[in-house]
Amino acid sequence: MVKKNEEASCFEVGGSCCRVEAVVGVDERGQMVLPKELREKVGIRPGDKLAVISWAQGGACSCISLIKTDELAGMVKNLLGPMMAEIGGK
Q1: Out of 3, 35, 69, 79, which could bridge 49 as a Cys pair, Cβ 3.0 to 4.6 Å?
Q2: pLDDT: is 33 or 1 the higher one?
């Protein structure tokens, strides 16, 4: 269930908070610009690599999310590291 949380100006979905941070346009080359305030807020710097994660619902992509590739790699390592150590007997 989605519920509007007025104090945090976000939509609560399953205990998480979703917020519209910005509205961006896409130019004729398919490029878009993330506003400076948002880049500063999330710590995106020139040269950073971002992974685009999509979420499909009913056979159509309904949401995309961006995550820094180094953070994604860390999350995967934390998730798989213990399992790999167990498999390897270490």
Answers
A1: 69
A2: 33
Order the strands of the 10-13 sheet from edge to edge: 2-5, 10-13, 16-18
Confidence of residue 1 (pLDDT cuts 50, 70, 90): very low
**DSSP percent split of the chain into helix, strand, coil, nearest 5:** 30, 30, 40
Say how many C-beta atoms besides its own lie within 10 A of residue 88's C-beta. Answer: 7
Spatial CA neighbour of 52 closest among 35, 64, 39, 34: 64
Pair 49, 72: CB distance under 8 Å: no
Ramachandran sector of residue 29 (left: φ over 0; alpha: ψ -120 to 50; beta: rest) = alpha
Give the type of residue at 40: E
Q: How confident is the model at residue 46 (pLDDT cuts 50, 70, 90)?
A: very high
- Is residue 45 pLDDT above 70, yes or no? yes
> Most distant CA pair in the chain: distance in Å?
53
